[in-house]
Amino acid sequence: MSLQGDVHRQVLERLGNVFVSARQAVESVLSGQHRSVRRGLSVEFAGHRPYQAGDDIRRLDWLVYARSDRYDVRVHEEETRLRATLIVDASGSMGYAGSSGRSKLDHAKVLAAALGFLMVRQSDSVGLVTFDRAVRDHLPPATTMGNLLVMLDRLEALAPGGETGIGAVLSSLAPQLTRRGLVILITDAFDDPDRIAEALSLLRYRKQDVRVLQVVDPLEQSFPFPAVISFRGLEGEPTITLDADRIRGYYHESLAAHRRALAERCHAIGVQLETLRTDEDLALSLIRILMQGPAT
Amino acid sequence: MISLANALLLGGLVAVAAPVVVHIAHRRRTRTMDWGAMRFLIEVVTRRQRQMSLDHLLLLAVRMLAIACIAFALTRPQLSFRAAGLGDLISRTGRTAAVIVIDDSLSTSAPRSDPAFVTMKRLAHAYIDTLRAGDEISLVALSRLSEPAADPIFDLVGAHEYIDRLVPTAIASDMPALIEAGVGRFSRHMNPHAELVIVTDARASGFSVESSDRWSALRGRLTGAVQAAVGTRSRPQVILLAARHEHPRGNLSVAEVAIDRTLLPPGRPVTIIARLIKDGAQPVSAALVRLMINGRTIEERTLDVPGDQSRQISFVHSFDEPGSHLIEVAVEGARDALAEDDRRSLAVEVESVLPVLLVEGRPGTGLDGSLGLLAAALAPRNVAGATGSGDLFAVSRVGADGVTERALSHARVAVLGDVPALDAEAVSALERFVVAGGGIFIVGGPDTDRDLANRFWSRGGDGFLPTALGAPKRVPSAHPVTTAASHPAVSAFAVGAAAALREVAVSQYLALTDLPPDLERILELDDGNPLLVTRTRGRGRVALFASSLDGAWNDLPYRSAFVPLSRSLVGWLGGNILPPRNLIAGDRLAWFPAADGSLGDVTAQGPDGQTLPLMRSAWEGHPALVSAPLTRIGAYAIRTGASRRPIWFQVGLASAESRLSPLTDAQLEGILAGIPRHDVADPAQVSGLFTIAGNRTHELWRWLIAAGILLLIIETVITQVQSKRERSYPQPATGRPA
User: Fold this and answer.
1) Residues A61 and A176 in one domain
2) Which of A22, A243, B67, B514 would you label with B186, given CA atoms 20 to 30 Å apart?
């Protein structure tokens, strides 16, 4: 089944038929998060807003000032649309498929596609960035259905591979995100938390509302393996043979420390961190994500 | 020093490698899987590798050490501190494995006034008194070698009781066999310090000093591994407890009782010959020699025997009735060392008729045919056509096709006279006949087919033909001579009658080839070629005459020697009474009725009048009543419900038991050369052989087992501590992080 069909089956159908209230909630969440075009039908001009320090003085509406002595600036339709960029981690570790046979990347792809659908349906613009150690593909945001289909095609063709370089990739992307927008990073975050946080802070500095969706496999959390096992890395790491029973405690300790560090750093810079397990219901995960307000 | 009781178990230390092997095997069975969260595993390895390796090595070491302790404990190590100045005394460096071999042969009952066996028992008791609780004991009596062993025992009281129950038996002394059996018993023992104790009356004949090969092999077993210390099970301490008693009056024994006929017919005189041997220089005078038939005294004579001489006494007697009879010769008043050998018996069967089957290559009647002249010699009245034959031999004459199982079942002897060939069934029947105890007499001649005979009758030495037949040989005139004068078949020619055989002229005969080593030559020709040979096949006897008996190749049938030779030879061939009735100590008495095979109501009595138990068993494949091995010498009688006359058996003493000459030191040094030993003759000196108090020995196996158990407990504790530490780290949240 294609990714589009997968998304339709897993997300949209269920949101439409089963969780009507949830869909409404999604829509309301989306509507409440930014000033959507649905509030006005104008194509060119969307309205005024009070002048804020830093606004281009050339956008002051002098007619309003003349009539009411208020400093208002004109706001156009383009500015009210949400510009969302979905950044999907396609490194080798995302290719891990636990007992379900569904890899983290598969889960991430469906998640990204679903978010894309929902946003385009609201006439928001959605773009896509895929990466491993560097940016593999960059599709700029657009509101058109054609752009969404291109995004789906590229997601569908996406295969895991390469090492993880979240910090470097986000750092390289930050200069390109000049306009305020929403950045959703879908990754397993198996990278240095400090470097991830440093890169995320750059995005925050670029006035990006950033959300990190950490996709994990249940087996990676529980580490339930018995006896001695040779673990072969998916990102070119050397094979390690270990007694799983004996190192389980140490593994849990290390994993918990990583998550704790990542959560603390994200919280410090106003980035929402959400952990999604590949065995969770995707629709419910989406609702949970979208119900949360902006981090700042 | 540390010594190992079970050094062979030292190989068990390889089990120490088991944890390593298990570890390696465990690692080899690992499965490989792809893993995404490698950074955490790498971090664990980087941070915890040293601690995990230390934990692992510690566990491995503890496990290996525990196994090593237990494996080493199985070798029974002992730490010994030997006190100085112990000299040649035996130092018991730990628990003792004692094998006591006891010669309970009949010679130990000499001399009458102070039997050696009493002293031997005291010596054995004194030795057992030196043992302590926990020492292992094997008691091996000569008379019980054939009994299943259930040793070693730890019961010192039981060992004393065993010694008390022993009595001298009629089993012939065989010290090499007894000592070899004792050495073999050490394989059943576990205790480290090994002692082989030989309790004997130290007679030269009992030690078979002339059997150098047996003693050489035995010395090899006693010395064991050269590098082994004396006192170990592979090289035990040898202690000789010898009751060396003097026999100043010497010993007179009835060494043999024999008769001069191979076949005993009723009403005919038979000479009974008793051979008496005097051992020792002291003469015997005015002793009484008594002949008894079936327990009744027939004749008595006085006897004087100078020292170290043998004497032969002959009696003439005729048996009136056919059947089983017992001849006994007893010496009374000899006042010698050993009483039991002053009497000897011989069980004989008096037979009124001996059925003989004559198989002729050229059948004939009267004096014609291949065996007509032999038939006349055996049964003259029958050949002459007299009615109511009184011949001792009941002769039946058949052709080659008359050899059947049925015909043989009525005969005791089958004579094949110049038979060209026999069919396969006849050959098979003859083989079974001789194996079961029958006698076969093969006579050559011009018609005998040598190739067929060698192929089917001889079968490479396995058939009933004593030896292979060669080509006929023609000589001008050859004369037979006796080469085995004592053989019953030619005993009639032994004294004064040898010339009768020399009169015989042989002109042609079959050269005998491939003579087997057990072949006995009875008659030879001048040229050295054998003329009459005999051999034992199975339970039966076979004889081969290389020439003919029809007068064609020799003139024997026309000479005076023919009749006595023929009758003696055929009588000897058919005089084989089975099961045998003249036994030696250790044999089993067997009896079966010949008529219908039913065992019926049968009772048996021993020499002392006690009932002898008989068990239903088999003798040479026939259902029979069989006794336990007989250890008492004397006459045994079997009575059936149908017959009032007993069937006599006798158990004789090996003549070597009567020779009481002591084993000299030189002989002892010769047979036990190179084997350190300790000789004691006085029971009071036995305890002085050993130094127990001067040595301190510690068994280490208990400590090693304790250490092994302690290490296993430590291993468990370490494992639990490690497991607890590993589980003390935070478990992952199964859902969303808080």
Assistant:
1) no
2) B67
